[in-house]
Amino acid sequence: MLDIKFIRENPEKVKKASSDKGITVDIDAFLNLDKELRVLQQEIDGLRSEKNKLGKADIEKGRELKEKLKGLEESFSDTDKKRHNLHRRIPNIPFDDVLVGKDDAENIVLRQVGKLPKFGFTPKEHFLLGEELDIIDLERAAKISGSRFYFLKNEAVILETALINFTFSLLAKKGFVPVIPPVMIKPAESEAMGYIENHPDEEAYYLERDELYLTATSEQSLGAMHSKEILDLKKAKKYVAFSTCFRRESGSYGKDTKGIFRVHQFDKMEMFIFCKPEESEKYHKELLSIEEELMKALDIPYQVINICTGDLGKPAAKKYDIEAWMPGQSRYRETHSTSNCTDYQSRGLEIRYKENDNSLKFIHTLNGTAFAMGRIIVAILENYQQKDGSVKVPKVLQKYTGFKVIKKK
Q1: Which of the two ends of the chain, N or C, has the fewest CB atoms closer than 10 A to its terminal CB?
Q2: 28-55 pLDDT, tens per residue?
Q3: How many folded domains does the chain comprise?
């Protein structure tokens, strides 16, 4: 959440940030509730002080003050809930160098890396290759789970485990702690991470009986892992997690209906960093550099995108995407993102660190995709397909797969 003191002192900047991100929230109403809360708190403190000064003989006066306190405390609780509901909708402030734009159409391509593959035939999309090679089964998945689910089979399963082993191995050398996190999260923690909007059930899966959300990314569990802790940040804490993720994709009707690019359930490897505020820009660049290193290791052409305010999301102050070239679709598609969320998440989660003068400060949090397995398998199948219908395995993964080519059965 955004610092309340900052909102009080910079209302116009907060209004502009909300507008630039396309988020509708009444900042004036928030400030009025905030002012009302402070007045109520003063009245409550005054009555409590007066009540504490009463003697044993002041029974009637004590009852009178108790009733007044009860009414004020109820008003305070109701007002606090109203302020909180507005507070959680206020987005993080974009950095000054973030482009102002309405949506993804106004994002900027920073660079393109790698040569686009040339084929002596018309390249196929991944779902056709997956069916012909018997490594992706969409029809049977739809039979048991509905649309936007899939079975991975045969070599595709080995390919995913190869990607996992390769990534854990590489990132462990860079100081990342490997993690397999819970895939369910309490509403309060999910909200503090910035993922509960006005209508959360449109995107998230919620288990009402258990009062738990299914996580849409490991970032949600990783960020909440240190909630209400004071961390020793002599060096940044770095994690890389593998987990299954769940998304309703309610806003994607008619998009990517074929294949495994946009689905309800998928596996993903996510990087997450806790650091001091003055280090977050450096670590954001590091996460982007690692994402590019992973793509270069697979030898898949990609482009780096600078994300504008309207496509930034609520928790992020700055964000980059990587889009991989998909020959079967003849266009670039998003496979990675990395965001600097500054102290927006740590405030709601109460994660702090101790400075040299023993003062406590909120940490900064950053996240970045290592691999979204379905999407990177799509990219591999389409970029490494051969004329005979087979698919080569990227060289860097071959020692993990034990085979160099996926052939028709």
Answers
A1: C
A2: 999 999 999 999 999 999 999 998 888 8
A3: 2
Last residue of a domain, one of 53, 87, 121: 87
Two structure tokens written together for 225: 């892992």
Helix-then-strand count for the chain, H and E: 13, 18
DSSP tag of 104: G
Cα Rg of the chain, angstroms: 25
Residue 402 carries which side chain, given as an amino acid letter? Answer: G
Four-point Cα dihedral 40, 41, 45, 50, nearest 10: 0
Q: Nearest Cα to 156, choosing from 371, 386, 327, 377? A: 377
pLDDT single digits (tens) 273-292: 999 999 999 999 999 999 99
How confident is the model over 224-252, as a mean pLDDT? 92
8 A C-beta contact, residue 242 and residue 287 = no
Percentage above 90 pLDDT, the chain:
89
- Strand (E) or helix (H) holding 189: helix 187-192
Residue 229's CATH number: 3.30.930.10
Using the predicted structure, report yes or no on whether residue 201 has a pLDDT greater than 60: no
Average pLDDT over residues 232-252: 90
Is the same domain home to 218 and 78? no
Query: Over the chain, what is the mean pLDDT?
Result: 94
Q: ∠ CA(165), CA(170), CA(172), 5° rounding?
A: 95
Other beta carbons within 10 Å of 257: 11
Rounded to two decimals, what is the model's pTM?
Answer: 0.93
- What DSSP string runs through 49-72? HHHHT--TT-HHHHHHHHHHHHHH
> Do 145 and 21 fall within a single domain?
no
Query: Which residues lie across from 268 on neighbouring strands?
Result: 243, 372
Tokens encoding 333: 């598609």
DSSP class of 79: H
Write out the E strands in 163-298: 177-179, 184-185, 206-207, 212-214, 230-231, 237-246, 265-275
Q: Report which of 68, 12, 38, 22 is spatially closest to residue 307, judged by C-alpha positions.
A: 22
- d(CA 175, CA 168) in angstroms, rounded, equals 11
Residue 17 lies in a domain: yes
Looking at the structure, tell me whether residues 42 and 108 fall in a common domain.
no
Tell me the backbone φ, ψ of residue 352, rounded to 5 degrees: -130, 175
Q: Which of 99, 119, 39 is nearest to 75 (CA)?
A: 39
